[in-house]
Specification:
The complex is a heterodimer of chains A (354) and B (297). Chain A has helices spanning 2-33, 49-59, 71-79, 92-100, 176-186, 196-209, 221-227, 237-246, 275-285, 288-298, 313-316, 341-352; strands at 37-43, 62-68, 87-88, 134-147, 170-172, 213-216, 232-236, 250-253, 260-268, 301-302, 332-333. Chain A has 354 residues and is α/β, with parallel strands linked by helices. Chain A folds into two domains: 2-138 and 262-322, D-Maltodextrin-Binding Protein, domain 2; 140-261 and 328-352, Periplasmic binding protein-like II (D-Maltodextrin-Binding Protein, domain 2, 3-Layer(aba) Sandwich), CATH 3.40.190. In chain A, strands 1, 2, 3, 4, 5, 6, 7, 8, 9, 10 and 11 form an eleven-stranded mixed beta sheet that branches. The longest helix of chain A is centred in the N-terminal third of the chain and has 32 residues, at 2-33. Chain B has a domain at 73-260: Orthogonal Bundle (MetI-like fold), CATH 1.10.3720.10. Chain B is globular and about 90 Å long. Chain B has a two-stranded antiparallel ribbon. In chain B, helix 3 crosses helix 9, helix 8 crosses helix 9 (203-231) and helix 11 (248-258) runs antiparallel to helix 12 (262-296). Chain B is mainly α. The model of chain B has no long low-confidence stretch (mean pLDDT 90). Classes of the chains: A alpha/beta (354), B mainly alpha (297). Chain A binds chain B through residues 3-4, 7-8, 11, 15, 70, 72-73, 75-76, 79, 97, 100-101, 168, 174-176, 210, 213-217, 220, 227-229, 336, 338-339, 341-342, 345-346, 348-350, 352-353, and chain B through 18, 21-22, 25, 29, 33, 50, 52-55, 70, 72, 75-76, 79, 133, 137-139, 157, 160, 238, 242-246, 250-251, 254-255, 257-261, 264.
Chain lengths: 354, 297
């Protein structure tokens, strides 16, 4: 019996030790491999391998790219601490959450000179007014992608998603904040409302819309548009722009009631052990020429206004990629709604169970 | 004073005891560290509160469970139970004849068929589910072929419905039904079936009164292996159901990954586990009661 206890005890302490050891171990291991290894955690399909290689050559560094699928997943990955990552790309609202949790390092403005050439609408935003922690990188809007062969009168309002003529040929994002955002704008409300009555009214409108909706999809709506399975899709501009290559009749519009503006922002993590190199990397990614190449490859707008000079004309003029200037005042940033999240949650679940 | 042989026996007993402890240790430790401990953590989290930024605040209450009393969640659990039961029944109805057929083949052919049953596992489940989208969608493979053959005049809209969800679940979990059934049927002594024929049992009686009782462990194992993962499925309802409705797996995933509401997600997980556990305990109780009665009579 004694022996069993000893065994149990020693195994337990071994596991406990191993657990304690893990975090610093990950750090030293990465350092040991090379003093110039950078761990970049980004969205899937969000880097251009040639540009990464170019950075590696120029700085004698190695960049290891890992991916995440959503802001929430990113937060979960980092909250454990000691993740071993140096640079990542949270969206606007997540920057404020990560900063509040003390996960982000302060940027050294001298190391990121390209900060000076940010587009006007991306400067001093509410989630990080003085760019203490973050630099906007890729940005865009949420609007409606549609097939102009079928939807012949160009839609200008979110109301088109309630048009019975397109029953069963509409897709909405599988994202509660964006779906509620669209209907809230249609109702003339802020998409960040925390008023239970307004959220309830929005839910009723969405329930009325549901019979027309073929699917709630965040990943494959561009394919659905390109294949003709749907003719109206709520979506981010970039994927809609990609669908245009497959089906030239596809168009993109941000309705007159306005829509979401978003920006994925580069940040350096506080736990990074190579902050100087990390900031050099951040500065490299938003360099005008590098950003322009990224923009053409990924079909998203980049934050450096000087990059526009290098971006191909057809990309620059595509409103799904570069939102027209006159649109900017009608766009709204999504913010964390705190406790009201449960209201949205409940309403979203009720919508799904209709 | 003990006799020398008694001392030796005692020593051997002690050694056996030690060996037992050593052999059990890995399994016990595994269960404690990777099952009981995480489960306790989930339970603790389920009694906590969501922080402003989605973290966990440790003020304990049963509010999350109280929130789950809302009829909405009852409907989600109800729908999940329905879809999982349907999946299990269809898998059983399809799997039993196939398993029976395979079990009656020559060993060589059995091996070929079993490999064929397992081949789908060589490809990732997500990829295979995407393949179903291409088969089922409006302008997909199924509709194109059926339209060309003139069997239908308008495309069948099956994708993004609960029918597609059940189809996907049956497709995904059918092997889990076939394999235990095959193992059970293969072990059945054929002479017992011949004896039943000799005693003038008709086909149905042979099946119901000989084959089913003898293969019951396989049937139960297959049903459990299909029912439980179907109940918690979330990829299939999202992709093939078009996220138009929710199964409890989607709800849990939503609470953890989208709403960042770990406490509510944990409470949901606990309720789901309790339901499954309750159903299993009820089943085995009923089973042993029935067995006891049979033995007594």
């Amino acid at each position: 019996m004694m022996k069993v206890q000893i065994v149990l005890l020693s195994v337990f302490s071994f596991i406990a030790l191993a657990a304690c050891d893990r975090a610093p171990d990950a750090g030293t291991q990465a350092q040991g491999a090379s003093a110039h290894t950078l761990h970049y955690l980004t969205w899937s399909d969000y880097v251009s391998p040639e540009l990464i290689r170019e950075f590696e050559r120029a700085h004698g560094a190695k960049v290891i790219v890992d991916t995440f699928g959503s802001n929430e997943e990113l937060l979960a990955k980092l909250q454990g601490g000691g993740s071993g990552y140096d640079v990542t790309v949270p969206s606007d609202f997540m920057v404020s959450i990560m900063a509040a949790q003390g996960l982000l390092a302060e940027l050294d403005a001298a190391a990121v000179p390209n900060l000076a050439s940010l587009e006007a609408q991306l400067q001093h935003l509410a989630f990080d007014p003085s760019h203490r922690y973050s630099v906007p990188y890729l940005w865009g809007t949420v609007g409606i992608g549609y097939d102009s062969d079928v939807v012949t009168s160009p839609p200008d309002s979110w109301a088109v998603l309630w048009d019975d003529r397109y029953r069963g040929r509409i897709s909405m994002l599988n994202d509660q904040r964006e779906v509620f955002g669209a209907v809230l704008r249609l109702m003339g409300q802020s998409m960040n409302t925390t008023d239970p009555l307004v959220i309830e009214a929005a839910k009723q409108k969405l329930i009325a819309q549901k019979p027309l909706v073929k699917t709630y999809a965040s990943d494959n709506y561009a394919q659905l548009l390109a294949s003709g399975d749907v003719v109206l899709a709520q979506g981010w501009g970039g994927p809609v722009a990609r669908a245009m290559a497959d089906r030239p009749s596809i168009r993109y519009v941000v309705p007159k009631e306005g829509g979401t503006i978003w920006a994925d922002c580069l940040v350096v993590l506080r736990s990074s052990t190579r902050k100087a190199l990390a900031m050099t990397f951040v500065n490299y990614l938003i360099d005008a020429r590098v950003a322009a190449a990224t923009s053409e490859r990924l079909l998203f707008a980049v934050s450096n206004r000087e990059a526009r000079a290098f971006v191909k004309q057809d990309v620059l003029e595509n409103s799904a990629i570069y939102p027209p200037v006159e649109l900017i005042p009608r766009l709204e940033w999504m913010t964390d709604v705190g406790k009201a999240m449960r209201l949205y949650d409940r309403a979203w679940t009720e919508l799904k169970m209709q | 004073m003990m006799a020398p042989s008694a001392i030796a026996r005692k020593a051997r007993k002690e050694a056996d005891g030690n060996a037992t402890a050593w052999l059990l240790a890995p399994g016990v430790l595994w269960t404690v560290f990777f099952c009981l401990l995480p489960l306790s953590v989930i339970f603790l989290v389920s009694c906590a509160t969501r922080g402003t930024y989605g973290g966990i605040v440790w003020d304990f209450s049963l509010d999350n469970y109280r929130d789950l009393l809302h009829a909405l969640y009852g409907r989600i659990f109800g729908q999940s139970l329905l879809l999982a039961s349907l999946t299990t029944i269809i898998c059983l109805a399809m799997g039993f004849p196939l398993a029976y057929y395979i079990a009656r083949l020559s060993p060589r052919r059995q091996a070929v068929w079993l490999v064929l049953v397992m081949v789908p596992f060589w490809t990732n489940f997500l990829v295979r589910t995407y393949a179903w989208i291409f088969i089922l969608r409006t302008e997909g493979l199924m509709n194109t072929v059926l339209l060309k053959l003139g069997l239908i005049s308008a495309p069948i809209e099956i994708l993004y419905s609960n029918t597609a969800v059940v189809l996907g679940l049956v497709y995904g979990y059918l092997p889990f039904m076939i394999l235990p059934l095959y193992a059970a049927i293969e072990r059945v002594d054929r002479s017992l079936i011949e004896a039943a024929w000799d005693l003038y049992a008709d086909r149905w009686s042979v099946f119901r009164r000989v084959l089913v009782p003898l293969t019951k462990p396989g049937i139960v194992a297959g049903c459990v292996l299909v029912f439980i993962p179907s109940l918690g499925a979330f990829i299939t309802p999202d992709l093939l159901g078009g996220a138009r409705s929710m199964m409890v797996g989607n709800l849990i995933q939503h609470e953890y990954l989208i709403a960042r509401d770990w406490p509510l997600g944990s409470a949901l997980s606990m309720v789901l586990m309790a339901l499954v556990m309750g159903a299993m305990i009820w089943y085995f109780r009923a089973q042993s009661a029935a067995d006891g009665k049979r033995r007594a009579s």
